[in-house]
Sequence to fold (234 residues):
Amino acid sequence: MKNKWERDRKDWTVEQKLKEATRQRLKAPEDMCRTLKLALDTKEKKCEELAEQLACSVNKISNITTQLELTENSLDAMKKSSFLSATRSKEASSKGRKEVKILSAEIIMKAFFKKSLKFDVLSSRLSVTNLRKKIDVTGRHNIEIVEKEVLKEGVKTTIRSARCSIKNLATEIRERVENLEKHNLLLATDELTVCLLGDKGSDATKLCVSIEDVANPNSPGNLLLAGIKKRPPM
Fold:
């Protein structure tokens, strides 16, 4: 009996040891997984902290950059203000302390052209386009280049010259008379005298129509270009 009891006891002990070993083997992966999870959580927290610190650093750098830009703008404004103040003080002292207006070159040119030419040549693109349409002669005259062969120093040479002719003479005369009547430049007569004038110059031959019954006969308002031909260079 004693031997049997000891044998059973040994078997039970061996069985318990096997169970304990099995439990330890099963527990080891769980402990490892738990350890890895804790390590990952710790790294995630550190990454979040680093991201927050990086965002704070970026905001600080942005604020510093903005402050630097504001400082540079302030310095530029101070330099410009001091330069203008010095310029104004110098000009005022040289001209008896009078107020001096600093005008740009564009303003001066605009004022000069407007005063001299009676219109602003530096106006907007729309105004320039309207002026171009107003003075455009291509709708009223035919402009063409005429080629002609001449004998020059024993050699045949082709020379080119410009020729301009009015498209509709009757329509142009009617519009010019209406324009003169609109501005009260026609004399109060029942009849209208129209003359055809010609001028053969050294470099061009000109042909124009003159309306005689006007208040100012010497003005170009009563003259209408009918045709012109440039003489080719010899």
Notes: The longest strand covers residues 141-152. The beta strands are 141-152, 155-166, 194-200, 204-211, 223-230.
